[in-house]
Protein backbone atom coordinates (compact mmCIF):
# COMPACT_ATOMS: atom_id res chain seq x y z
CA UNK A 1 0.00 0.00 0.00
CA UNK A 2 2.80 2.37 0.99
CA UNK A 3 4.67 1.41 -2.17
CA UNK A 4 1.61 2.07 -4.31
CA UNK A 5 1.13 5.40 -2.60
CA UNK A 6 4.80 6.41 -3.20
CA UNK A 7 4.43 5.48 -6.86
CA UNK A 8 1.39 7.73 -7.17
CA UNK A 9 3.32 10.60 -5.50
CA UNK A 10 6.33 10.14 -7.82
CA UNK A 11 4.07 10.07 -10.90
CA UNK A 12 2.32 13.19 -9.71
CA UNK A 13 5.64 15.01 -9.13
CA UNK A 14 6.96 13.98 -12.54
CA UNK A 15 3.76 15.12 -14.22
CA UNK A 16 3.80 18.50 -12.49
CA UNK A 17 7.48 19.02 -13.34
CA UNK A 18 6.97 18.34 -17.02
CA UNK A 19 3.90 20.57 -16.98
CA UNK A 20 6.12 23.43 -15.87
CA UNK A 21 8.82 22.80 -18.40
CA UNK A 22 9.67 25.74 -20.58
CA UNK A 23 12.21 24.99 -23.29
CA UNK A 24 15.09 27.33 -24.09
CA UNK A 25 15.29 28.80 -27.58
CA UNK A 26 18.49 29.24 -29.60
CA UNK A 27 21.72 30.21 -27.86
CA UNK A 28 21.41 30.75 -24.12
CA UNK A 29 23.73 32.24 -21.48
CA UNK A 30 25.73 30.14 -19.04
CA UNK A 31 25.10 30.66 -15.33
CA UNK A 32 28.29 32.80 -15.18
CA UNK A 33 26.97 34.94 -18.03
CA UNK A 34 23.60 35.34 -16.30
CA UNK A 35 25.40 36.55 -13.18
CA UNK A 36 27.53 38.84 -15.34
CA UNK A 37 24.41 40.46 -16.84
CA UNK A 38 23.13 41.15 -13.35
CA UNK A 39 26.26 43.23 -12.56
CA UNK A 40 25.23 45.87 -15.16
CA UNK A 41 27.73 48.58 -14.16
CA UNK A 42 31.38 48.42 -13.09
CA UNK A 43 34.59 50.42 -13.18
CA UNK A 44 37.51 50.29 -15.58
CA UNK A 45 40.82 51.71 -14.34
CA UNK A 46 43.64 52.61 -16.71
CA UNK A 47 46.82 53.11 -14.71
CA UNK A 48 50.55 52.66 -15.48
CA UNK A 49 53.55 54.60 -16.80
CA UNK A 50 51.23 56.46 -19.23
CA UNK A 51 49.63 58.10 -16.19
CA UNK A 52 52.95 59.85 -15.57
CA UNK A 53 54.11 60.49 -19.14
CA UNK A 54 50.94 61.99 -20.55
CA UNK A 55 50.52 59.52 -23.41
CA UNK A 56 47.80 57.02 -24.27
CA UNK A 57 50.04 54.38 -25.82
CA UNK A 58 53.45 54.08 -24.15
CA UNK A 59 56.31 52.86 -26.35
CA UNK A 60 57.54 50.26 -23.89
CA UNK A 61 60.92 51.97 -23.71
CA UNK A 62 59.90 54.23 -20.80
CA UNK A 63 62.08 54.08 -17.71
CA UNK A 64 60.05 52.02 -15.20
CA UNK A 65 61.09 54.57 -12.61
CA UNK A 66 58.51 56.99 -14.00
CA UNK A 67 55.88 54.85 -12.27
CA UNK A 68 55.89 56.37 -8.79
CA UNK A 69 52.49 57.22 -7.32
CA UNK A 70 52.89 59.14 -4.08
CA UNK A 71 49.66 58.24 -2.26
CA UNK A 72 48.37 55.12 -4.00
CA UNK A 73 45.32 53.84 -2.17
CA UNK A 74 43.29 51.03 -3.75
CA UNK A 75 40.78 51.25 -0.89
CA UNK A 76 39.92 54.74 -2.10
CA UNK A 77 39.26 53.32 -5.58
CA UNK A 78 37.10 50.52 -4.18
CA UNK A 79 35.20 52.81 -1.81
CA UNK A 80 34.47 55.16 -4.71
CA UNK A 81 33.27 52.34 -6.98
CA UNK A 82 31.09 50.94 -4.22
CA UNK A 83 29.47 54.28 -3.46
CA UNK A 84 28.98 54.85 -7.15
CA UNK A 85 26.80 51.72 -7.27
CA UNK A 86 29.31 49.82 -9.36
CA UNK A 87 29.70 46.09 -8.87
CA UNK A 88 33.38 45.59 -9.65
CA UNK A 89 36.69 46.96 -10.95
CA UNK A 90 38.75 45.89 -13.97
CA UNK A 91 42.36 47.14 -13.90
CA UNK A 92 44.87 47.45 -16.74
CA UNK A 93 47.37 44.97 -15.29
CA UNK A 94 49.42 45.32 -18.48
CA UNK A 95 48.75 47.84 -21.25
CA UNK A 96 50.42 47.98 -24.68
CA UNK A 97 53.67 49.36 -23.17
CA UNK A 98 54.17 45.98 -21.48
CA UNK A 99 54.56 47.41 -17.96
CA UNK A 100 53.18 44.96 -15.40
CA UNK A 101 51.38 46.35 -12.34
CA UNK A 102 52.44 43.18 -10.53
CA UNK A 103 56.03 41.89 -10.15
CA UNK A 104 55.88 39.38 -12.99
CA UNK A 105 58.66 36.80 -13.18
CA UNK A 106 58.34 36.91 -16.95
CA UNK A 107 59.22 40.56 -17.53
CA UNK A 108 61.80 43.09 -16.43
CA UNK A 109 59.41 45.97 -16.97
CA UNK A 110 57.23 45.90 -13.85
CA UNK A 111 56.42 47.57 -10.53
CA UNK A 112 59.49 45.74 -9.18
CA UNK A 113 61.74 47.92 -11.37
CA UNK A 114 59.89 51.10 -10.34
CA UNK A 115 60.53 53.48 -7.46
CA UNK A 116 57.08 52.87 -5.96
CA UNK A 117 57.46 51.21 -2.55
CA UNK A 118 61.12 50.65 -3.45
CA UNK A 119 60.07 48.02 -5.94
CA UNK A 120 58.23 46.01 -3.29
CA UNK A 121 54.71 46.96 -4.33
CA UNK A 122 52.02 44.99 -6.17
CA UNK A 123 48.98 46.92 -7.40
CA UNK A 124 47.02 43.74 -8.14
CA UNK A 125 47.53 42.49 -4.60
CA UNK A 126 46.32 45.77 -3.10
CA UNK A 127 43.39 46.15 -5.46
CA UNK A 128 42.14 42.56 -5.19
CA UNK A 129 42.23 42.87 -1.37
CA UNK A 130 40.36 46.19 -1.51
CA UNK A 131 37.72 44.68 -3.83
CA UNK A 132 37.21 41.79 -1.41
CA UNK A 133 36.91 44.24 1.49
CA UNK A 134 34.25 46.29 -0.31
CA UNK A 135 32.36 43.34 -1.78
CA UNK A 136 33.33 44.16 -5.36
CA UNK A 137 34.26 41.82 -8.20
CA UNK A 138 37.86 41.98 -9.39
CA UNK A 139 38.74 41.83 -13.08
CA UNK A 140 41.92 42.05 -15.11
CA UNK A 141 42.77 43.74 -18.41
CA UNK A 142 45.82 42.31 -20.15
CA UNK A 143 47.04 43.51 -23.50
CA UNK A 144 48.65 40.78 -25.61
CA UNK A 145 50.25 43.59 -27.60
CA UNK A 146 53.49 44.28 -25.76
CA UNK A 147 55.84 47.00 -26.98
CA UNK A 148 58.49 46.09 -24.41
CA UNK A 149 58.89 42.33 -24.22
CA UNK A 150 61.92 41.10 -26.24
CA UNK A 151 60.09 37.87 -27.23
CA UNK A 152 57.15 39.73 -28.76
CA UNK A 153 56.82 38.85 -32.44
CA UNK A 154 58.24 35.34 -31.94
CA UNK A 155 56.27 32.12 -31.34
CA UNK A 156 57.76 32.01 -27.82
CA UNK A 157 55.84 35.13 -26.79
CA UNK A 158 52.49 33.34 -26.63
CA UNK A 159 53.92 31.15 -23.87
CA UNK A 160 55.27 34.26 -22.09
CA UNK A 161 51.82 35.83 -22.25
CA UNK A 162 50.19 32.65 -20.94
CA UNK A 163 52.73 32.55 -18.09
CA UNK A 164 51.81 36.12 -17.20
CA UNK A 165 48.13 35.18 -17.37
CA UNK A 166 48.83 32.30 -15.02
CA UNK A 167 50.30 34.72 -12.49
CA UNK A 168 47.38 37.14 -12.52
CA UNK A 169 44.80 34.36 -12.48
CA UNK A 170 46.24 32.34 -9.62
CA UNK A 171 47.62 34.85 -7.14
CA UNK A 172 44.80 37.28 -6.49
CA UNK A 173 41.63 35.31 -5.81
CA UNK A 174 38.58 35.22 -8.04
CA UNK A 175 38.71 37.08 -11.35
CA UNK A 176 35.20 37.77 -12.69
CA UNK A 177 36.26 39.11 -16.08
CA UNK A 178 39.40 38.67 -18.16
CA UNK A 179 39.59 41.60 -20.56
CA UNK A 180 41.61 40.92 -23.70
CA UNK A 181 42.49 43.95 -25.75
CA UNK A 182 42.47 42.99 -29.42
CA UNK A 183 45.01 45.65 -30.51
CA UNK A 184 47.91 44.02 -32.33
CA UNK A 185 50.82 46.29 -33.20
CA UNK A 186 54.55 45.97 -33.56
CA UNK A 187 56.86 45.00 -30.72
CA UNK A 188 60.37 46.33 -29.92
CA UNK A 189 61.85 44.36 -32.83
CA UNK A 190 59.35 45.81 -35.31
CA UNK A 191 57.42 42.52 -35.58
CA UNK A 192 53.77 41.76 -35.03
CA UNK A 193 52.64 38.74 -33.08
CA UNK A 194 50.28 36.03 -34.16
CA UNK A 195 48.18 35.56 -31.04
CA UNK A 196 47.16 32.08 -29.98
CA UNK A 197 43.69 32.91 -28.68
CA UNK A 198 42.57 29.32 -28.01
CA UNK A 199 45.70 28.88 -25.86
CA UNK A 200 45.00 32.15 -23.98
CA UNK A 201 41.34 31.27 -23.41
CA UNK A 202 42.11 27.76 -22.23
CA UNK A 203 44.51 29.20 -19.66
CA UNK A 204 41.78 31.49 -18.33
CA UNK A 205 39.25 28.66 -18.01
CA UNK A 206 41.84 26.39 -16.43
CA UNK A 207 42.43 28.79 -13.54
CA UNK A 208 39.16 30.73 -13.45
CA UNK A 209 36.41 28.51 -14.88
CA UNK A 210 33.70 31.07 -14.10
CA UNK A 211 35.48 34.09 -15.60
CA UNK A 212 33.86 35.98 -18.45
CA UNK A 213 36.38 36.43 -21.26
CA UNK A 214 35.99 39.76 -23.06
CA UNK A 215 37.32 40.28 -26.56
CA UNK A 216 35.94 41.47 -29.89
CA UNK A 217 34.58 37.96 -30.26
CA UNK A 218 33.99 36.82 -26.67
CA UNK A 219 33.62 33.97 -25.82
CA UNK A 220 32.21 35.44 -22.56
CA UNK A 221 31.19 38.91 -23.76
CA UNK A 222 31.95 41.06 -26.78
CA UNK A 223 33.15 44.56 -27.51
CA UNK A 224 30.20 46.73 -28.52
CA UNK A 225 32.00 48.10 -31.57
CA UNK A 226 32.60 51.65 -30.31
CA UNK A 227 34.24 53.37 -27.35
CA UNK A 228 31.46 55.88 -26.79
CA UNK A 229 29.40 53.86 -24.32
CA UNK A 230 26.44 53.10 -26.59
CA UNK A 231 24.96 49.73 -27.42
CA UNK A 232 22.77 49.23 -30.49
CA UNK A 233 19.08 50.15 -30.39
CA UNK A 234 18.78 46.64 -31.72
CA UNK A 235 21.02 44.57 -29.53
CA UNK A 236 21.21 40.81 -29.98
CA UNK A 237 23.16 38.92 -27.35
CA UNK A 238 24.09 36.32 -29.91
CA UNK A 239 27.07 36.11 -32.24
CA UNK A 240 28.33 33.74 -34.94
CA UNK A 241 31.61 32.92 -33.27
CA UNK A 242 32.92 31.03 -36.28
CA UNK A 243 32.87 34.31 -38.20
CA UNK A 244 34.17 36.86 -35.69
CA UNK A 245 37.66 36.97 -34.14
CA UNK A 246 39.69 39.52 -32.14
CA UNK A 247 40.64 42.30 -34.55
CA UNK A 248 37.62 41.48 -36.77
CA UNK A 249 37.55 44.25 -39.41
CA UNK A 250 33.72 44.44 -39.73
CA UNK A 251 33.45 45.40 -36.10
CA UNK A 252 30.32 47.46 -36.77
CA UNK A 253 28.49 44.11 -36.74
CA UNK A 254 29.39 43.86 -33.06
CA UNK A 255 26.99 46.68 -32.18
CA UNK A 256 23.73 44.91 -33.08
CA UNK A 257 25.24 41.42 -32.75
CA UNK A 258 24.03 38.62 -35.00
CA UNK A 259 20.32 38.00 -34.78
CA UNK A 260 20.66 34.28 -35.32
CA UNK A 261 24.10 33.97 -33.78
CA UNK A 262 25.21 30.53 -32.66
CA UNK A 263 26.50 31.55 -29.23
CA UNK A 264 25.55 33.83 -26.37
CA UNK A 265 28.15 36.64 -26.45
CA UNK A 266 26.56 39.80 -25.00
CA UNK A 267 27.89 43.32 -25.56
CA UNK A 268 29.85 45.36 -23.04
CA UNK A 269 30.16 49.15 -23.46
CA UNK A 270 33.57 50.50 -22.48
CA UNK A 271 33.91 54.26 -22.31
CA UNK A 272 36.00 56.75 -20.35
CA UNK A 273 34.74 59.46 -18.01
CA UNK A 274 37.43 61.71 -19.59
CA UNK A 275 38.54 62.12 -23.21
CA UNK A 276 41.51 59.73 -22.71
CA UNK A 277 41.77 56.31 -21.07
CA UNK A 278 44.75 57.31 -18.93
CA UNK A 279 44.99 60.24 -16.53
CA UNK A 280 46.34 63.50 -17.88
CA UNK A 281 46.35 66.91 -16.18
CA UNK A 282 45.11 68.24 -19.54
CA UNK A 283 41.76 66.55 -18.98
CA UNK A 284 41.16 67.70 -15.41
CA UNK A 285 38.51 70.09 -16.65
CA UNK A 286 37.10 67.65 -19.22
CA UNK A 287 35.33 65.13 -17.01
CA UNK A 288 32.10 64.20 -18.77
CA UNK A 289 29.03 66.17 -17.73
CA UNK A 290 26.38 64.43 -15.67
CA UNK A 291 23.89 64.66 -18.56
CA UNK A 292 26.37 62.88 -20.84
CA UNK A 293 26.87 60.08 -18.33
CA UNK A 294 23.14 59.68 -17.82
CA UNK A 295 22.76 59.38 -21.58
CA UNK A 296 25.50 56.76 -21.64
CA UNK A 297 23.76 54.83 -18.87
CA UNK A 298 20.52 54.74 -20.86
CA UNK A 299 22.45 53.92 -24.03
CA UNK A 300 24.25 50.96 -22.47
CA UNK A 301 22.45 49.43 -19.47
CA UNK A 302 19.19 50.75 -20.93
CA UNK A 303 19.81 48.74 -24.10
CA UNK A 304 20.67 45.49 -22.40
CA UNK A 305 24.43 45.88 -22.33
CA UNK A 306 26.83 46.20 -19.39
CA UNK A 307 28.57 49.52 -18.76
CA UNK A 308 32.31 49.48 -18.07
CA UNK A 309 33.06 53.09 -17.17
CA UNK A 310 36.73 54.03 -17.10
CA UNK A 311 37.88 56.27 -14.27
CA UNK A 312 41.60 56.99 -14.61
CA UNK A 313 43.67 57.03 -11.44
CA UNK A 314 45.95 60.08 -11.19
CA UNK A 315 49.66 60.52 -10.45
CA UNK A 316 49.05 60.36 -6.71
CA UNK A 317 47.46 56.94 -7.24
CA UNK A 318 43.98 58.25 -6.37
CA UNK A 319 40.71 58.79 -8.22
CA UNK A 320 40.59 62.58 -8.68
CA UNK A 321 37.97 64.53 -6.78
CA UNK A 322 36.12 65.85 -9.84
CA UNK A 323 35.65 62.36 -11.27
CA UNK A 324 34.41 60.90 -8.01
CA UNK A 325 31.94 63.78 -7.50
CA UNK A 326 30.53 63.07 -10.98
CA UNK A 327 30.22 59.37 -10.16
CA UNK A 328 28.26 60.18 -7.01
CA UNK A 329 25.95 62.48 -8.97
CA UNK A 330 25.30 59.71 -11.47
CA UNK A 331 24.66 57.20 -8.69
CA UNK A 332 22.10 59.56 -7.19
CA UNK A 333 20.29 60.00 -10.50
CA UNK A 334 20.17 56.23 -11.08
CA UNK A 335 19.03 55.53 -7.55
CA UNK A 336 16.33 58.20 -7.51
CA UNK A 337 15.09 57.25 -10.96
CA UNK A 338 14.62 53.53 -10.38
CA UNK A 339 13.75 53.36 -6.72
CA UNK A 340 9.96 53.37 -6.76
CA UNK A 341 8.48 50.82 -9.15
CA UNK A 342 4.88 51.90 -9.75
CA UNK A 343 4.09 48.71 -11.69
CA UNK A 344 3.99 46.88 -8.37
CA UNK A 345 0.68 48.65 -7.71
CA UNK A 346 -0.87 47.46 -10.95
CA UNK A 347 -3.05 44.49 -11.76
CA UNK A 348 -1.56 42.55 -14.69
CA UNK A 349 -3.30 40.70 -17.50
CA UNK A 350 -1.76 38.84 -20.40
CA UNK A 351 -3.55 37.66 -23.52
CA UNK A 352 -1.57 34.42 -23.46
CA UNK A 353 0.12 32.49 -20.68
CA UNK A 354 2.18 29.33 -20.81
CA UNK A 355 1.34 26.92 -17.98
CA UNK A 356 1.96 28.55 -14.61
CA UNK A 357 4.33 31.23 -15.91
CA UNK A 358 1.66 33.78 -15.16
CA UNK A 359 1.68 37.53 -15.60
CA UNK A 360 1.93 38.32 -11.87
CA UNK A 361 5.60 37.35 -12.11
CA UNK A 362 6.17 40.46 -14.19
CA UNK A 363 5.53 42.77 -11.25
CA UNK A 364 6.71 40.67 -8.31
CA UNK A 365 10.03 42.59 -8.20
CA UNK A 366 11.92 39.29 -8.21
CA UNK A 367 14.43 38.51 -10.89
CA UNK A 368 14.33 35.10 -12.55
CA UNK A 369 10.59 34.59 -12.02
CA UNK A 370 8.90 34.70 -15.41
CA UNK A 371 5.79 35.26 -17.42
CA UNK A 372 5.81 33.16 -20.56
CA UNK A 373 3.41 33.35 -23.46
CA UNK A 374 1.97 30.34 -25.23
CA UNK A 375 1.93 32.29 -28.52
CA UNK A 376 4.54 34.25 -30.45
CA UNK A 377 2.72 37.51 -30.07
CA UNK A 378 1.03 38.61 -26.88
CA UNK A 379 -0.20 41.68 -25.04
CA UNK A 380 0.23 42.55 -21.42
CA UNK A 381 -1.85 45.15 -19.65
CA UNK A 382 -0.94 46.93 -16.42
CA UNK A 383 -4.06 48.38 -14.84
CA UNK A 384 -4.06 50.89 -11.99
CA UNK A 385 -6.92 51.66 -9.59
CA UNK A 386 -6.26 55.33 -9.97
CA UNK A 387 -4.29 57.42 -12.51
CA UNK A 388 -0.50 57.29 -12.20
CA UNK A 389 2.08 59.55 -13.79
CA UNK A 390 4.97 57.67 -15.41
CA UNK A 391 7.87 58.52 -17.76
CA UNK A 392 10.04 55.39 -17.87
CA UNK A 393 9.31 51.76 -18.63
CA UNK A 394 11.80 48.97 -17.96
CA UNK A 395 11.38 45.61 -19.67
CA UNK A 396 13.41 42.48 -19.09
CA UNK A 397 13.40 39.23 -21.00
CA UNK A 398 13.91 35.88 -19.32
CA UNK A 399 17.23 35.49 -21.11
CA UNK A 400 18.01 32.15 -19.54
CA UNK A 401 15.49 30.84 -22.08
CA UNK A 402 17.20 32.71 -24.94
CA UNK A 403 16.57 36.10 -26.53
CA UNK A 404 13.25 35.95 -28.35
CA UNK A 405 11.62 39.34 -28.83
CA UNK A 406 12.20 40.94 -32.24
CA UNK A 407 9.71 43.81 -31.97
CA UNK A 408 7.43 45.31 -29.35
CA UNK A 409 5.32 48.40 -28.74
CA UNK A 410 4.13 50.28 -25.66
CA UNK A 411 0.69 51.90 -25.51
CA UNK A 412 -0.97 54.15 -22.94
CA UNK A 413 -4.65 54.53 -22.25
CA UNK A 414 -5.82 58.02 -23.16
CA UNK A 415 -9.36 59.39 -23.64
CA UNK A 416 -10.96 55.98 -23.69
CA UNK A 417 -8.51 54.25 -26.06
CA UNK A 418 -4.93 53.06 -26.36
CA UNK A 419 -2.38 55.30 -28.02
CA UNK A 420 0.97 53.97 -29.19
CA UNK A 421 3.81 55.57 -27.27
CA UNK A 422 6.85 53.80 -28.62
CA UNK A 423 7.83 50.93 -30.85
CA UNK A 424 11.20 49.20 -30.64
CA UNK A 425 13.00 46.01 -31.61
CA UNK A 426 14.96 43.94 -29.06
CA UNK A 427 14.62 43.76 -25.28
CA UNK A 428 17.26 41.29 -24.05
CA UNK A 429 18.46 41.47 -20.46
CA UNK A 430 17.04 44.97 -20.00
CA UNK A 431 15.41 47.71 -22.05
CA UNK A 432 14.64 51.15 -20.62
CA UNK A 433 12.40 53.50 -22.59
CA UNK A 434 12.04 57.18 -21.66
CA UNK A 435 9.13 59.43 -22.54
CA UNK A 436 7.50 62.61 -21.25
CA UNK A 437 5.22 62.52 -18.19
CA UNK A 438 2.01 60.58 -18.87
CA UNK A 439 -0.86 60.28 -16.46
CA UNK A 440 -2.88 57.14 -17.15
CA UNK A 441 -4.71 54.20 -15.65
CA UNK A 442 -3.48 51.60 -18.16
CA UNK A 443 -0.22 50.75 -19.91
CA UNK A 444 -0.02 48.01 -22.50
CA UNK A 445 3.03 46.19 -23.85
CA UNK A 446 2.54 44.43 -27.16
CA UNK A 447 5.07 41.85 -28.25
CA UNK A 448 4.49 42.05 -31.98
CA UNK A 449 7.23 39.80 -33.30
CA UNK A 450 9.22 37.09 -31.58
CA UNK A 451 11.39 34.18 -32.66
CA UNK A 452 9.57 31.98 -30.17
CA UNK A 453 6.81 32.64 -27.61
CA UNK A 454 8.15 35.46 -25.43
CA UNK A 455 9.38 35.01 -21.88
CA UNK A 456 9.65 38.15 -19.75
CA UNK A 457 11.24 38.59 -16.35
CA UNK A 458 9.74 41.95 -15.47
CA UNK A 459 7.96 45.14 -16.41
CA UNK A 460 8.60 48.21 -14.28
CA UNK A 461 7.23 51.73 -14.45
CA UNK A 462 8.81 54.80 -12.93
CA UNK A 463 8.30 58.51 -12.63
CA UNK A 464 11.64 60.28 -12.81
CA UNK A 465 11.60 63.84 -11.42
C1 LIG B 1 42.00 49.94 -26.76
C2 LIG B 1 43.37 50.43 -26.32
O1 LIG B 1 44.19 50.67 -27.45
C3 LIG B 1 43.15 51.69 -25.51
O2 LIG B 1 44.36 52.25 -25.09
C4 LIG B 1 42.28 51.34 -24.31
O3 LIG B 1 42.98 50.46 -23.44
C5 LIG B 1 40.98 50.69 -24.78
C6 LIG B 1 40.10 50.25 -23.64
O4 LIG B 1 41.24 49.60 -25.61
O5 LIG B 1 42.07 48.88 -27.64
Would you write up a description of this structure?
This protein is α/β, with parallel strands linked by helices. The protein has two domains: 31-337, Alpha-Beta Barrel (TIM Barrel), CATH 3.20.20.80; 342-462, Jelly Rolls, CATH 2.60.120.260. Helix content is 23%, strand content 25%. The chain is built from nine helices and 17 strands. It has helices at residues 2-20, 31-39, 49-53, 74-83, 123-133, 156-170, 197-207, 290-300, 321-337; strands spanning 41-45, 88-94, 137-142, 177-180, 212-215, 221-223, 238-239, 263-264, 267-272, 306-310, 347-350, 371-372, 378-397, 405-414, 417-424, 431-450, 455-462. The strands form three sheets. It has an eight-stranded parallel beta barrel with strand order 1-2-3-4-5-6-9-10, surrounded by four helices. Strands 11, 12, 13, 14, 15, 16 and 17 form a seven-stranded antiparallel β-sheet that branches. Helix 4 packs parallel to helix 5 and helix 6 (156-170) runs parallel beside helix 7 (197-207). It is globular and about 75 Å long. Residues 13-19 have low confidence and may be disordered. Bound molecules: beta-L-fucopyranose (FUL).
Question: What's a concise summary of this model?
Answer:
With 465 residues, the chain is an alpha/beta fold. The protein has helices at residues 2-20, 31-39, 49-53, 74-83, 123-133, 156-170, 197-207, 290-300, 321-337, and strands spanning 41-45, 88-94, 137-142, 177-180, 212-215, 221-223, 238-239, 263-264, 267-272, 306-310, 347-350, 371-372, 378-397, 405-414, 417-424, 431-450, 455-462. It folds into two domains: 31-337, TIM Barrel (Alpha-Beta Barrel); 342-462, Galactose-binding domain-like (Jelly Rolls), CATH 2.60.120.260.
Amino acid sequence: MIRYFSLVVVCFLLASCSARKLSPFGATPSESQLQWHELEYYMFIHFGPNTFTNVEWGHGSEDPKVFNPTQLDCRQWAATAKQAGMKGIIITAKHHDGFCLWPSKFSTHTVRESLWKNGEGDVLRELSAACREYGLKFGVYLSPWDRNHPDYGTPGYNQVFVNMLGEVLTNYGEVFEQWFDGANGEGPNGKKQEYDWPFFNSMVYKHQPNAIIFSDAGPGCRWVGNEKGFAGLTNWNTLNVEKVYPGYPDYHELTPGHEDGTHWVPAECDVSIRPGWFYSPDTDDKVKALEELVEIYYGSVGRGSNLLLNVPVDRRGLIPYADSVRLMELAEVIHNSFDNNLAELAKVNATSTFKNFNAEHLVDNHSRTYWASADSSAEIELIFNEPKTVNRIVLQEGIEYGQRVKAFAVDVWKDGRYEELDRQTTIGYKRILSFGDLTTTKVRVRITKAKAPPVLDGIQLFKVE
